[in-house]
Amino acid sequence: MRRTLQVGTIVLLALAVVAAALWLNRRYVAREVLVGWLDRKGVPSQVDIERLELSGFTARVRIGDPNRPDVTVERVEVDYAISAPWSRTGLGLTPSRVRLVRPVLRARWVNGKLSLGSLDPLVDSFTSKPPRPDSASPVVIVEQGRVDLTTEYGPVAVLGDARMVDGKLMRLVARVPAASLKSGEAEARGLAGSVDLTTTGDRMAVRLDLAAQAARMGQARGEALALSLNGDLPYPDLKRRRGDGRAAVNGHLTAGRLGGGRTDLHGADLRLAFDGQTTGWLEAFRVEGRSDAALTAERISGAATGRRLSLATRQAELRIERGDGGVGWRLDGPATMQAASIAGMGVSSEGLALRSQALTLGGGSDGFEASGPVDVAAGRLTYDALSLRQVSGRLNTDITLQGATNVRVNGGLQAAGGAWPLFGPATKDDLPELAALKRALGDFSLAAPDLRLVSGGAG
Q1: 146 CB-side CA count, 13 A
Q2: Is position 410 within any domain?
Q3: Distance CA 210, CA 225 (A)
Q4: H helices of 115-252, where?
Q5: What confidence category does residue 19 fall into, taking pLDDT thresholds of 50, 70 and 90?
Q6: Cα–Cα distance, 421 to 434 (Å, whole number)
Q7: Residue 288 in contact with residue 317, Cβ under 8 Å?
Q8: Measured between alpha carbons, how far is 270 from 298 in angstroms, rounded to an integer?
């Protein structure tokens, strides 16, 4: 019994000595916990301790060039636990919670790479080796944070709050105030956005909202744009720079004007539902799966004109890729298109309905293409002086828009009624043969089982 008391007394005395040593050297210990590893990596930093306790401290921090620091934190609160000399980690402090209030980070995004200035060597060190299996990162809470991001398109500010647990982003609420950006053929005016992210296990629930007064990329352009995306996505592997896994996304895009080449849609509304797989990373990725999409537009102007356009597809195979050639997309599956009226390349229609069970649509920043068999129905079709009513048929189509619009069509058409006044209206002076021909051309039915149309021209 006496020996047990002696051992207990020694342990208590040892703990008291450890606590006293830490308390007497608390300012040094606090600084070591916060930025000691920065000093050892050669990263300049400055810490102003405001509060010290045995279980934590509060401070102000600046990291990087004192005249233009890469990181400033108005208030840092660190909670830690003291480990005994005989523990597996030895004598020291283990941070359990870090709260950052109004931190400001300066960063650069150039050529698809993020740079944090003087912190880059530390980021490379952390990402080049896996974490120790017996180590756990503290809970990190960011409140009223700001990132001043310099890009080749212009400066961007990101404001928000975040929470990380054991190195994983569990919660993020951020917004981007309106900014105007431009680089080469890409431009955006009044671009603003917000993101809301919640992580559960290895999945993320994300909502993204973007709006822009105007945007342009290559031949694609838009005005009065608003985009909303809701996604159930895989949590990314930041070490391997991969985002592989199942992705379910619902999107909604509205635009006062949306166009490509020399054709614009006015009052456009696009809705998309997607369920599939993602692979890769931001600079090179692939997304493929099944999708439902519906596009409507109040009016069409430019090389083509029209009213009340709608385009829809269900359970189509969608693929979106980004590589060295930029972003491209392809859609294969059933599709329908309807328009109250539409005209282009000398052909106009009213009450047009196109349906295909195997249509291919695709494109990128350099153009657009569409091909496949199409069932046609129209209340009226007009080409030059030729007018057809109650039109139906099946056509094989191949349409490309790459600076110039090229159309190749072949198949068969029927029309219950038609008129083609090649010789003008009938008059009392017409010869009987001419009068009969004019009457025949003024009202006839049409069967064209082998129709071919080729057209091409600028925009």
Answers
A1: 12
A2: no
A3: 8
A4: 120-127
A5: very low
A6: 12
A7: yes
A8: 12
Among residues 186, 87, 103, the alpha carbon closest in space to that of 145 is found at 103
Least confident of 6-15, 120-129, 265-274, 344-353: 6-15
pLDDT for the residue 52: 76
237: DSSP letter? B
pTM of the predicted model, to two decimals?
0.78
pLDDT band at residue 334 under the 50/70/90 scheme: very high
User: How many Å apart are CA 162 and CA 100, to the nearest integer?
Assistant: 10
Residue 293 burial (CB count, 10 A): 20
Q: Is the dihedral of CA 341, 342, 346, 349 positive or negative?
A: negative
For the chain, the average pLDDT equals 84
For the chain, how many structural domains are there in total?
1
Joined together, the tokens standing for residue 4 give: 């047990």
Residue 435: phi and psi, rounded to 5, are: -65, -40
In a domain, 22, yes or no: no
Domain with 97 in it: 52-183
| Residue 275 in domain | no
Question: What's the CA gap between 436 and 422, in Å, rounded?
Answer: 13
Residue 82: the pLDDT is: 64
Q: What is the DSSP string of 97-115?
A: EEEEEEEEEEEEEETTEEE
Residue 212 lies in a domain: no
Residue 132 — pLDDT band, cuts 50, 70, 90?
A: low
- Asked if the model's pLDDT at residue 7 lies above 80, the reply is no
Start-to-end C-alpha separation, the chain:
98
